[in-house]
Specification:
The protein is α/β, with parallel strands linked by helices. The chain folds into two domains: 3-205, P-loop containing nucleotide triphosphate hydrolases (Rossmann fold), CATH 3.40.50; 217-279, no CATH class. Helix content is 32%, strand content 31%. The chain is built from nine helices and 13 strands. The strands form three sheets. The protein has a six-stranded mixed β-sheet, with helices on both faces. The chain has a four-stranded antiparallel β-sheet with strand order 11-12-10-13. It binds adenosine-5'-triphosphate (ATP). Residues 5-230 form the ABC transporter domain.
């Protein structure tokens, strides 16, 4: 397996506050990775470390086989779109494309212009006058026209309405199939993650709680209802992720870590699985 991103005990501490703690990660090439977790979980910190904007306090990270951000050639292989899709408000769409071409050795101008036309952007319009959806589409086009091997997005669709979000993700998926690029995107919108991502990284309180192929992770998690008195008699291959108690019954989300038999186990979807980790176990 070729890892696009490999982290070992990766840690970032801001003063005394942990941003990311002891993260071990292997992201295989060609995946669309959803990075999820509650506010303050460490998602932006991980993305900043991945593109070399933040230096680790301890541990190691390799992106495309190198320490991130150390060489211009490595930077050219990574496209990063920060949380608020920053553009130059005074520059037109055409000027953004010219700037992209000037700054990026691998710039694919044909791709950029074709995409701008498909999205229906006016080349003469200033970025400051574009709608949020159009700005996100322009930022995506610029990031992709670099022809990177890894594309990183920090909450790309958070501010967009459902239609603009759908169009953005649709475009992203077209790029993924056209250019065979690996994508890492952070999002609070679990439905979007379920729709476009085939790999999931879940952070909580600065730690990696889950990382793996979405299908494998969903296959390992179940909802089980047990009598409250049976809570301590669960089979050994079942780890309780979340528990809710009502009357004499407990509804559990469990992860099957071995060949445990779980009577009346129900399958759950990605959203329920992620929420179970976010809310945790209250006994
Ligand atoms: N520059 C900074 N200085 C001090 N603490 C920081 C800094 N950046 C992040 N943190 C802290 O690190 C932790 C992780 O923050 P981070 O922004 O990575 O989380 P996040 O998952 O991206 O959150 P959100 O979903 O709200 O964007 C938080 O406790 C945050 O307060």
């Amino acid at each position: 397996m070729t890892s696009v991103l490999r982290a070992r005990r990766l840690t970032k501490i801001y003063g005394r506050r942990p941003g990311l703690t002891d993260a071990d990660l292997d992201i295989p090439a060609g995946r669309v990775v959803g990075l999820v977790g509650p506010n303050g979980a460490g998602k932006s910190t991980l993305l900043g470390l991945s593109c070399g904007l933040i230096e680790p306090s301890a541990g190691s990270i390799e992106v495309l086989g190198e320490r991130p951000g150390t060489r211009a050639a490595q930077l050219a292989r990574v496209g990063f779109v920060a949380q608020d899709t920053p553009l130059y408000p005074g520059l037109t769409v055409a000027e953004h494309l010219r700037l992209g071409a000037r700054l990026n050795p691998g710039w694919d101008d044909k791709l950029a212009r074709r995409r701008v036309q498909q999205i229906g952007l006016d080349l003469a319009q200033r970025a400051g006058r574009l709608s949020g959806g159009q700005r996100a589409q322009l930022a995506l086009t610029i990031a992709v026209a670099k022809r990177p091997e890894l594309l990183i997005f920090d909450e790309p669709v958070a501010a967009l309405d459902p239609l603009a979000r759908w169009q953005f993700l649709q475009n992203l998926m077209e790029f993924v199939s056209e250019l065979a690029v690996t994508v890492v995107l952070s999002s609070h919108l679990l439905g979007d993650v379920e729709r476009v991502c085939d790999h999931l990284v879940l952070l909580s309180a600065s730690r990696v709680r889950l990382s793996g192929a979405v299908d494998d992770l969903v296959d390992e998690h179940f909802r089980v209802v047990v009598g409250r008195e049976d809570l301590d008699r669960l089979p050994s291959g079942a780890e309780v992720v979340h528990a809710e108690h009502k009357g004499g019954q407990s509804t559990l989300v469990v992860r099957r870590t071995g060949p445990a038999f779980l009577p009346h186990a129900e399958r759950i979807n990605l959203e329920d699985m992620v929420l179970a980790y976010m809310t945790g176990v209250q006994r």
